[in-house]
Amino acid sequence: MKLRSMSRLLAAAATCLPLMASAGNVLLSDIASINVSGTPGVLRAGSIWAPAPAATAVGTLFDGSFLPTGTTWTNGTFWWDELLGQGNPLTIELQLNAPRTLERFVVQGDDNENYLVDWWDGAAWQLAYNAAAVFSFGMETRDSGLLPAITTDRLRIRAQGGDGYYSLSEVQAFEADRVPEPGSLALAGLALAALVTAGRRRPAAAR
Ligand SMILES: [Ca+2]
Ligand SMILES: [Ca+2]
Question: What's the domain count of the chain?
Fold first, then answer.
């Protein structure tokens, strides 16, 4: 009986795993093409940040890997200087393989400006998420939490405000049906707790 309880518990836990896993970041596998408009990795004349390390490849924004919080904005990031020359409003546009329904975004970028994720509604760009400035130091991760779902096959990322020294290290977009919802997790937890309690309450004779 004890063994059966354990196997039921393991089976229940296994069914909960897909809910709890951080799967569903469509940008890990569903990007058809990336188009960068603007110049990364070049500083304005006389910048206090010179000399700076080279900017990483734009693909590092979508590899699922974050930098340690507080990493200096040019260190291992895809960075750009918005105030380079006559202005350098860099944007990163993503074409997805197919339309996806998205409801959560995670952005790791420099702390002191807003990073905006836009989505294409078929006629115009619309704001999906503003990863607002947090004013600490260096790389900071912002998580939108659950948002009203949008469906699109095109996303655009840009920065706004702050000091014009912009950088990103990770951008993630989560599909609606795979984000663990607090309600689902609570139910899964209750089911597990009930199973554990049931196992413990079995009379000694049945063991
Ligand atoms: Ca990354
Ligand atoms: Ca900055």
Answer: 1
